[in-house]
Design a protein that fits this description.
395 residues; alpha/beta; Aspartate Aminotransferase, domain 2; seven-stranded mixed sheet
Length: 395
């Protein structure tokens, strides 16, 4: 079977919907123009961009002018965090030890610039410690940032409780949210949570790679981080692909046409997958919470006595793509920092498998993947002295 025939790594990127490609094609050819004034080509693109921004704004309960297009979620995070820090110039920032690498690397950069950063602990299901958040707030705290849905175990952070804590402070604390794994996977209205800035990405919801957006609450001023001529946006200056923006808007339109139905489909698939894994493989443990506190597309399990890297490579030989540990930290054979932070040991971390599903995932694909994983697990465990010793103890 060819590579990626069964693709279960949709948290990294998802297949582009055919309708998205169709929506993009005119902007690659006859409608390639940049925005402009006083000429029909530029004004036509202005009108198109306004429509695209409206589609995306409506999905999160924002105003059209609060949407800023960027070349992806990572750049959106950087523009927001560095822009808020540039306006503050000094002070205190709060994030957590289980946040997405975009936030953690920006936090490290802020420390080098002289800012102070507090890193909140998380519980054994990757929820941040709300008591620690209250205690961490200081008179000079100007920014709290979080990853709404954990990129490794799928935990949905308690956003309303976080918002209430921030609002209860005796001064304004800006709230930045990375919604890379949340956008299109859960109801997400920015006013419900008091979010000031939020990053989203197209390629996680069957849109094109290379385009994202930053929500910036009206009235909030970010220090400029990218300088140059304005084409499509004043925060990411220079040229942006109008075709990619068109594809982004189409993906949002499709995903949010029936968001509850989309979530329900993913939840049913992920529940089915976990039940099949439990049925076919023993000594398996779910990482993260069950049910509604977990994003519907994510199942992360630790399989005892074998290495996740070996399982992933052997599954790949059957055309099945999955992730082991944290995909953003897998350049080396290091345990997932998220799994370690929630109390897993090195063996559990290295034995973890992450399956992330999409609207195109089928039960037949999941059955095939689980059957092959069960065969691989049996083969690898037959060579494991730890597994054989455990089995002997059970007798």
């Amino acid at each position: 079977m060819k590579s990626g025939s069964v693709y279960l790594d949709n948290c990294v990127t998802s297949p582009m919907a055919p309708e998205v490609l169709d929506a993009m094609m005119p902007y690659f050819s006859e409608r390639f123009w940049f925005p402009g004034s006083f000429v029909s080509t530029g004004e036509s693109t202005n009108d198109a961009l306004s429509g695209f921004a409206h589609t995306i704004a409506a999905a999160i309960g924002a105003r059209d002018e609060e949407i800023h297009f960027t070349s992806g979620g990572t750049l959106a995070n950087n523009i927001a965090i560095k822009g808020l820090a540039g306006s503050a110039q000094r002070g205190h920032v709060i994030c957590s030890v289980v946040d997405y690498p975009d936030l953690l690397t920006n936090a490290a950069w802020l420390e080098k610039q002289g800012f102070e950063v507090s890193y909140l602990p998380a519980d054994d299901e990757a929820r941040i410690d709300l008591v620690a958040l209250k205690q961490a707030i200081r008179p000079d705290t100007f920014l709290f940032m979080t990853t709404i849905v954990n990129h490794v175990v799928g935990t949905i952070q308690p956003m309303k409780e976080i918002s209430e804590i921030l609002k209860a402070a005796d001064h304004k604390i800006y709230f930045h949210a990375d919604a890379g794994q949340a956008f299109g996977k859960m109801p997400l209205q920015v006013d419900d949570y008091g979010i000031d800035t939020m990053s989203i990405s197209a390629h996680k919801i069957h849109g094109p790679q290379g385009i994202g957006a930053l929500y910036v609450r009206k009235g909030l001023r970010l220090a400029q981080t990218i300088h140059g001529i304005k084409r499509a946006d004043n925060l990411q200056t220079g040229g942006l692909s109008i075709a990619l923006i068109a594809g982004f808007a189409k993906a949002v339109e499709m995903n949010f046409a029936d968001l509850p139905g989309s979530i329900r489909q993913l939840r049913e698939l992920s529940d089915y997958l976990y039940a099949r894994l439990q049925e076919k493989i023993d000594h398996i443990e779910l990482n993260g919470p069950m049910g509604e506190e977990r994003a519907a597309h994510n199942i992360n399990v630790s399989i005892d006595y074998i290495e996740g890297e070996s399982m992933a490579m052997m599954l790949d030989m059957h055309g099945i793509t999955v992730a082991t540990g944290s995909a953003c930290a897998s350049q080396g054979l290091k345990p997932s920092y998220v799994l370690m932070a929630i109390g897993k040991n090195h063996v559990q971390s290295h034995g973890s498998m992450k399956f992330t599903l999409s609207r195109y995932t089928t039960r037949e694909q999941l059955d095939f993947a689980v059957d092959k994983l069960a065969e691989i697990t049996t083969e690898l465990r037959s060579r494991s002295p730890l597994y054989n010793a455990a089995k002997n103890q059970e007798k």
